Amino acid sequence: MLRFLVLTSLAALVLAEPRYLMDIDQRVVGGEVAAPNSWPWQISLQYLSGGSYYHTCGGTLIQRGWVMTAAHCVDTPRTFRVILGEHDLNSNSGREQIIAVSAIYVHPQWDANKLSQGNDIALLRLASDANLNTYVQLGSLPPSGQILPNNNPCYITGWGRTATGGSLSPQLKQAYLPLVDYPTCSSPSWWGSTVNNNMVCAGGGNEAGCNGDSGGPLNCSVSGQYVVHGVTSFVSSSGCNTYQKPTVFTRVSAYISWMNSIMG
């Protein structure tokens, strides 16, 4: 890790006090509120504290009984659940499905003290299968090893901060983050050696992911279909939307074989 560069993971801050509501509503920087259930594979990952559940990260439903998220979201022992079909964290639309997490599989090479080494990915086994419908669907995953070109259209979705220390909203947001290819993102004036080729960079301008978006999908347009090419991982502590410090994601196509080995 570069000496003067401090990385911050995007999980919502964990506070001991029940006033954690100060963080659960924070969302994507820039962008706009998504149409309800327009990203039907997006889930809210929540943990139990003091008898109540609180949003901490996003995730992607990839099989009826499996969710993909970031390792740093679940590498501390807690009781977790996921909410599928969610849009507004403060309102019940009747479309939500709430399912407990029965098992957690963190990538074996994940090291919380070495975020820049990557491997920030985990799989959650659900206690029961999701009911697929108009509001809850599976995210499409890329073929193993696929690399998208520079400026490929992508969207981040999540309930993270609207700005570094900014305003709050309980509604799911989306922001257009064009992909930044590895040669550009790893150049000295961008992220340099902090990123590796098992990561995907997207954005680098006015829109970005921020605290609370961790684990959620980077949805990229490929042949007219949205495919989940990234798992939201980290940003610069200088600010979520720091120029030429795009949001960094775990590159899903680098981990297909590992995921298949876990899910069978």
TrEMBL record:
**EC number in record:** 3.4.21.36
In the UniProt record, the signal sequence range is: 1-16
- Record's GO cellular component, any one? extracellular space
- Output the GO biological process annotations, alphabetical, semicolon-separated: proteolysis
Show the catalytic activity. Hydrolysis of proteins, including elastin. Preferential cleavage: Ala-|-Xaa
Q: Which residues form the Peptidase S1 domain?
A: 28-264
SUPFAM superfamilies xref list: Trypsin-like serine proteases
Give the subcellular location. Secreted
- Which cofactors is this protein said to need? Ca(2+)
The GO molecular function terms of this record are:
metal ion binding; serine-type endopeptidase activity
**Keyword line:** Calcium, Disulfide bond, Hydrolase, Metal-binding, Protease, Secreted, Serine protease, Signal
Which PANTHER family has this protein been placed in?
CHYMOTRYPSIN-LIKE ELASTASE FAMILY MEMBER, CHYMOTRYPSIN-LIKE ELASTASE FAMILY MEMBER 1
Q: What is this protein called?
A: pancreatic elastase
Which organism is this protein's natural source? Oreochromis niloticus
